[in-house]
Amino acid sequence: MDKLVSSWYNDQSLPESYIFPPHERPGKLLVPRCNTVPVIDLSDTRTNLVHQILKASQEFGLFQVVNHGVPPNIMSETMSVFHKFFELPAEDKASLTVYTNDPKRCKLVTSTLDYDREKIHLWRDVLRHPCHPDCIEFWPRKPLRYREVVAACSIEAKKLGLEILELLCEGIGIEHGYFEHELTEDLLLGANHYPPCPDPSLTLGIPKHFDPDILTILLQEHISGLQVLKDGEWIGVRPIPNAFVVNIGYILQVISNNKLKGAEHRVVTNSSDHRISVVFCMNPAGNSNIEPAKSVVTATNPPLCRGFQFKEFLDNFYSMEGDADLALQPFKL
Ligand code: OGA
Ligand code: NI
């Protein structure tokens, strides 16, 4: 495994291989942590929720939810388990995450899976694994309560995600239950650790991307870093205690035939704090058929692409270095 950035960040200035080209760098400009990203109170009436979630998903592709019903202790214990995990010595972290290509296994990498081939490295370490109960035996055994706490949080995240998808279905006129089975079968966890960075103006934790999934449910703490692109401008996603950030994935944009907007987002680093974020990505099963939902396609809104298997898209996505638009290109009509 390549050396985790968290094991050497303190020893040197920013290496050349982490410096992004000028047009991608965050620069010194402080992007305001605006209040403009919608915050949706899930205890509101259903009619209001359908309207608000639809509006947020069309305008931003990203919003935060509060009063979502996930117990706050599950959220704080989850963050605490990941703090403890990332504080372990690098050798322990490596030994807890056997590196193989088996998709059921946990992977701990620095930057991306493509470290050896990528031109520029990302200022982060990331732990990934599927959340399916069959895979729990491969999850880290340390910290002690990892499996219990992360299992509880992943169940809540999936439940919340399905609720939000139901509201979106109602909003755009897709039949009830459309996303309930195959299309959200694989819940994947990603835990990002961004250590303090010697020069946040030159590098990124994650550059601009769409998540290649249906919906992403993100847990963060009080340290900001996530930004969303809106009308050509980067907007900071203000951390709110006990909120989840929800973003529309590229595949949901496709299924909605562009009625919903996938969120283009990135992560900036900072020079003083460690930041940890936990993402739950709702992914279709590899062999599921992805196509614009029949109910949203009309004569005036013809399908933007033909049907394809999710795994065909993912193969393209990874060979196109994470460019979702390019990955969809072969299927466009
Ligand atoms: C991701 C991502 C955001 C964050 O993991 O895909 O966008 O705040 N993470 O870490
Ligand atoms: Ni993302």
UniProtKB/TrEMBL annotation:
InterPro entries the UniProt entry points to: DIOX_N, IPNS-like_FE2OG_OXY, IPNS-like_sf, Oxoglu/Fe-dep_dioxygenase_dom, Plant_2OG-oxidoreductases
Molecular function as annotated in GO: metal ion binding; oxidoreductase activity
Any Pfam family the entry gives: DIOX_N
Keyword entries, A-Z: Iron, Metal-binding, Oxidoreductase
Domain annotation Fe2OG dioxygenase: ranges: 184-284
UniProt similarity note: Belongs to the iron/ascorbate-dependent oxidoreductase family.
Name this protein carries in UniProt: Fe2OG dioxygenase domain-containing protein
Organism: Gossypium mustelinum
